[in-house]
Design a protein that fits this description.
The complex is a heterodimer of chains A (251) and B (246). Chain A has 251 residues and is mainly alpha-helical. Chain A is built from ten helices and no strands. Chain A has one domain. In chain A, helix 1 packs antiparallel against helix 2, helix 2 crosses helix 5 and helix 2 crosses helix 8. Chain A is globular, with a radius of gyration of 18 Å. Chain B has two domains: 169 residues, 3-Layer(aba) Sandwich (Rossmann fold), CATH 3.40.50; 69 residues, no CATH class. In chain B, strands 6-7-8-3-9-10 form a six-stranded mixed beta sheet, with helices on both faces. A four-stranded antiparallel beta sheet of chain B has the order 2-1-4-5. In chain B, strand 4 and strand 5 form a beta hairpin. Classes of the chains: A mainly alpha (251), B alpha/beta (246).
């Protein structure tokens, strides 16, 4: 793999994105704001403070995490799949000096970039609404790229093995939606049966939510293990998107 | 000098043997055609030559480099016109060429100049700012050709360059290919049109079930087997008209 050639793939995605960002922004960015408004304000009116924090302030950092997650997952499931099969973009790229590993690295980097971008937009929005109490929140931005890589890796792995585009429904229903609901965004997991937090420990979103919440309140000492988890998993998963994509495309 | 040397090439897809122990060499400056029915292994051979997939066994050298060891160096000197018009549909004609040039590390100022030259060459200058979907089939094929030329390739690989085109558009593409050939570019093409093979190819390989049945000049084949190139093709791929009727 050569970073420069991976960058060329990333650059292609950026070029296409700059043409389409209007429709894509609406999908990825209006939705989290709706969650925040509906649950934070609507449900929040009936919910007492959680750990001494008003409900909307409690969920706001979690929305950074979920928005960032959705961005990478959409990009590296549907986006990658369309480029791979319908548009045959990969075939076009692989006829140039760019090789399959460069291509996969470019996909992952782009997915992580979208994670960073959409998470950052939410940071900006919730800060504007005064839902963040610490300026340390800015420090999450580089971390969003790292967690974005995890979501991108998982998505590319799945994209490499799905028989068809309809199979993504399984991915969303079995993996993404439960992760979204039970990651601690909307309620602390402490009151649920312990098995829930045990399962949540193995999902990247749970750790990202912890990280976002800690940074937005300024209490960083409690998330050392979340950060270690994130870096370890990025490296642990790394070989598989490359291996499986090579198997899928090259044969 | 040989541009491509293939020895004992075999390619398996899980249980299917797509290419079965073939040998051939392609000389600098010639136009070499692969003929054969669908599924004969033509596209697979092309894809191995342009380092898209590795051989299962055998040796394939392009520009005297091994396709497994030096794919990027080889691909930097090859142009590929695939069967599908795999453009970026969200980009304009011009942007498609610029983005493609970046994969070859061509600097922006050079790629802009090149893109205009190539659009002139394929007569698409006035379509530069148009979305891909608004091009006719013939225009798309010409644009794929332009894109394949962005790195000024020494070897051009053409997978069914004129399939689905009307006679006028087809001749237009032939004209361009003949020009490139005169300029010294080595061409490898697959086609189902015998007229195309006769007009363009110095030598043809007839493939059937993953094997090369014969390699010769079109004139040599017709002299040896009688009839036109289509008769030879049908005879050698075991699909003579008589058998089809029976």
């Amino acid at each position: 793999m050569k970073l420069k050639r991976a960058f060329r793939v990333w650059q292609r995605h950026l070029t296409v994105y700059t043409k389409l960002y209007k429709s894509s922004i609406a999908l990825n960015f209006v939705e989290p704001i709706l969650y925040l408004a509906a649950l934070g304000l609507g449900l929040g009116a009936f919910v007492k403070d959680i750990n001494g924090v008003p409900y909307i302030n409690f969920i706001a950092p979690g929305i950074i995490a979920s928005s960032s997650m959705f961005a990478a997952i959409y990009e590296c499931t549907y986006g990658t799949y369309v480029r791979m099969t319908y548009q045959k973009t990969f075939d076009a790229i692989l006829a140039t000096p760019v090789n399959i590993n460069d291509l996969v690295a470019g996909e992952l980097m782009w997915g992580a970039t979208k994670s960073l971008l959409y998470g950052t937009i939410i940071i900006f929005v919730i800060s504007l609404f005064g839902l963040v109490s610490s300026p340390l929140i800015i420090l999450i931005i580089p971390l969003l790229f790292v967690t974005g890589l995890i979501f991108a890796e998982i998505s590319v792995i799945f994209t490499a093995i799905v028989p068809g585009i309809d199979s993504f429904n399984y991915f969303y229903t079995i993996f993404m939606t439960p992760m979204f609901l039970f990651s601690g965004i909307f309620f602390p997991l402490d009151n649920l049966p312990p098995i829930v937090s045990k399962i949540a420990f193995f999902t990247p979103l749970y750790h990202l939510v912890n990280i976002c919440r800690a940074f937005s309140s300024g209490q960083l000492s409690i998330i050392r293990w979340d950060i270690i988890w994130v870096f370890a998993v990025v490296f642990l998963l790394a070989p598989y998107p490359f291996r499986l994509m090579r198997k899928r495309i090259i044969k | 000098m040989n541009i491509v040397t293939v020895k004992g090439l075999t390619k398996d897809y899980s249980s299917l043997r797509a290419v079965d122990n073939i040998d051939f060499a392609i000389v600098k400056g010639e136009c070499f055609g692969f003929l054969g029915p669908n599924g004969a292994g033509k596209t697979t051979v092309m894809r191995i030559i342009y380092c898209f997939m590795p051989p299962t066994s055998g040796k394939v050298k392009v520009f005297d480099m091994d396709v497994i060891e030096n794919p990027s160096l080889i691909k930097a000197r090859i142009g590929v016109m695939p069967q599908d018009n795999n453009f970026d549909p969200d980009l304009t004609v011009f942007e498609n060429l610029i983005v493609y040039a970046r994969y070859f590390d061509i600097a922006r100022k050079d790629s802009v100049k090149l893109a205009w030259e190539l659009l002139d060459f394929v007569e698409l200058r006035e379509k530069a700012q148009v979305k891909i979907d608004n091009l006719s089939g013939g225009m798309k094929r010409r644009l794929v050709l332009a894109r394949a030329l962005i790195n000024n390739p020494e070897l051009l690989i053409l997978d069914e360059p004129t399939t689905g085109l009307d006679p006028y558009s087809r001749r237009n593409v032939w004209k361009k290919l003949n020009y490139l050939k005169e300029k010294g570019t080595t061409l490898i093409l697959t086609t189902h049109y015998m007229e195309e093979a006769e007009k363009l190819c110095d030598r043809v390989a007839i493939m059937h079930s993953g094997k090369i049945v014969t390699i010769d000049t079109p004139i040599g084949l017709m002299g040896l087997h009688g009839g036109n190139l289509e008769d030879v093709y049908l005879k050698l791929t075991g699909r003579s008209l008589q058998r089809l009727i029976l």
